[in-house]
Write a structure and sequence with these properties.
By secondary structure, the protein is α+β, with helices and mostly antiparallel strands. Strands 3, 4, 5, 6, 7, 8 and 9 form a seven-stranded mixed β-sheet that branches. Strands 1-2 form a two-stranded antiparallel sheet. 58% of the residues lie in helices and 11% in strands. It has 17 helices and eleven strands. The chain is globular, with a radius of gyration of 24 Å.
């Protein structure tokens, strides 16, 4: 039987940072005497992750992937204000729930497995490789992280176990007039003193899995306000009633995932956390988790696109031989694999940074952190915040590129609905749009570019030792960091905010390529049999991309800005 738990994913669990992550997550293995499935030590913990990921890889390859075409063709339906999933989606949900793949990051006292974000990210990737539409439904369980982090203990006890048992979730943020500009949200929340609850009224649009069991809702609780300071976060339980699905959007891709327009009619809800912090604190945490999830989804789509292209290229014969033997084809495949491996390395490094700071934040709710732990929390919180927009933006672009190239390798057959590559192409397109477009990821990353955070991280990576075979590649990766530094200086010398804004996407691309060049080279040093070829190919690709963006920046002047305006 096929299994999506690949050696490349297994490699990501063997990183030096994992020991610190497990130590923090397991609190020195405090659960081992209370739960018979809790690990006894580090090796036991890694073995637990390995076993669950193997199961998830099996389910992804043999159930979810097998159902993907049927789900895409049928899609969900709206019946009497409720969502009816595609029939095979129910089979997927039943299988993942029975396998215990829900609430895996939650503490054991609530019914979870207490897994770190890194193995959860691996499950996310594998499910997305099987079906990105179903991954949208399954991965929204990650909303429970925000409820766990900011909700009360009573709310945790009531909602977290339900998610661990298979309850679905959604985050209801956007509205017809509030997309990326969430401070314009106008869904109204009023306090009902008689019932001692909040009531929600209004409309939400583009809500993924909008008929879920448990919703996190951004709503305006402060009457008379028009900005983010008047917004709070609420928990809505579908069992309470009061929310109907007006319609399901007819989308280009991810057909298995219902994207809904919701109507709230005096819906009963409860406050999550403190008033007025809904956007400026809670949604920011929610979105960062969602962006990491889309990065994992993107890597999964890239993997599926590569799988389809490779299999077709080996099987398809033209002019008396398999097309994989033609340079025009094997060059495309090698580039796809290099982007996949480099993007995956960026994804899991981000997940590890998230793990360390999230674990320390959780410990801080139980006891006061030591000065050393506070410094560690500050460091990795900054690292996670910096890496998340790189991981999301870059991998979503790679998913689009790889799915495009997969169709190209299929030729005319790739345009036919019989081949999965066309579904992957349609599914990939949304990844660079939702949870913040690539342009918004640039906005999130630019301050870390201009203040030197990324450059300092690259210089720290350069202190790592690599094998003699990989050293020439590592030296080339270092040269990319030098080019980033030079481009930053060029932009700063112009002393123009508009010029910096125009150059920001190009600085972002240079940064991402330099970062991935370092990471894939370090991976190749540790596992040359897995990543040696990809490192060679990616360095060629990265150097070309950096040179292109470097030329744009070096030729840009304040006087030329007008050439780019289309007003």
């Amino acid at each position: 039987m096929a299994n999506y738990y690949s050696e490349e994913i297994k490699f990501q669990l063997d990183h030096p940072l994992m020991k610190r992550i497990v130590e923090l997550k397991e609190r020195n293995y405090a659960d081992k005497d209370q739960y018979d499935y809790a690990p006894q030590n580090y090796e036991d913990a890694i073995d637990s992750y390995d076993r669950v990921l193997d199961l998830a890889g099996d389910i992804s390859a043999n159930t979810i992937a097998a159902n993907a075409e049927d789900v895409d063709a049928e899609g969900p339906h709206c019946e009497n204000g409720r969502v009816r999933y595609a029939s095979k989606t129910y089979e997927n949900l039943d299988t993942t729930t029975k396998a215990g793949l829900n609430g895996v990051t939650m503490p054991r006292r609530y019914g979870g497995l207490n897994f770190p974000c890194t193995p959860y990210t691996a499950i996310n990737e594998m499910i997305a490789t099987a079906d990105a539409g179903f991954e949208n439904i399954w991965s929204l369980q990650d909303c429970i992280e925000t409820l766990y982090e900011f909700g009360s203990e009573d709310q945790r006890q009531r909602f977290v176990p339900r998610v661990c048992k298979g309850a679905t979730m959604s985050m209801d943020l956007t509205e017809p007039d509030a997309g990326s500009d969430l401070q314009s949200v106008m869904l109204k929340a009023t306090y009902d003193e008689k019932e001692d609850c909040w009531r929600l009224n209004g409309c939400k649009r583009f809500i993924t899995n909008g008929d879920s069991d448990i919703h996190l809702v951004l709503a305006r609780s402060e009457e008379g306000t028009k900005d983010g300071r008047g917004l709070s976060m609420f928990i809505y339980d579908k069992n309470q009633g009061g929310v109907d699905v007006r319609r399901i959007e007819n989308k280009l891709g991810i057909h298995g995932s219902p994207t809904c327009e919701l109507v709230y009619k005096n819906a009963k809800a409860e406050l999550c956390g403190d008033r007025k912090l809904g956007l400026i604190k809670y949604v920011m945490a929610l979105m960062n988790g969602a962006r990491l999830g889309i990065a994992a989804q993107s890597v999964g789509i890239s993997q599926a696109a590569y799988n389809e292209a490779l299999a077709y290229a080996k099987d398809r014969k033209q002019f008396g031989q398999a097309i994989i033997n033609f340079p025009a084809v094997y060059e495309m495949l090698a580039t796809m694999k290099a982007k996949l491996d480099a993007g995956r390395s960026l994804l899991y490094m981000t997940a590890r940074y998230v793990d360390i700071y999230k674990c320390l934040e959780d410990i801080a709710r139980e006891r006061k952190l030591t000065p050393e732990e506070r410094q560690e929390l500050k460091k990795y919180s900054r690292m996670a915040d910096a890496f998340t927009p790189l991981a999301k933006g870059t991998n979503s672009e790679y998913a689009n590129q790889n799915s495009y190239d997969s169709i190209q390798i299929h030729g005319g057959s790739g345009y036919m609905l019989e081949y999965a590559c066309q579904r992957l192409y349609r599914d990939a397109r949304i990844t660079s749009i939702y949870e913040g477009t690539t342009q918004l990821q640039v906005v999130a990353a630019i301050r870390y570019i201009t203040n030197g955070t990324y450059l300092n991280i690259l210089r720290e990576f350069e202190n790592e030792s690599v094998s003699a075979e990989v050293q020439p590649l590592f030296d080339r990766a270092k040269a990319l960091a030098d080019k980033l530094e030079a481009c930053m200086a060029t932009v700063k010398e112009a002393q123009s905010q508009e010029l910096q804004d125009l150059a920001s996407r190009h600085l972002y691309d240079i940064t991402a390529n330099a970062m991935m060049a370092h990471l894939i080279t370090l991976d190749a040093s540790r596992a040359p049999q897995l990543f040696g070829r990809s490192a060679e190919v990616f360095l060629n690709l990265a150097e070309a991309e950096v040179a292109k963006n470097e030329k744009f920046i070096s030729s840009l002047s304040v006087e030329q800005i007008a050439n780019y305006r289309q007003a």
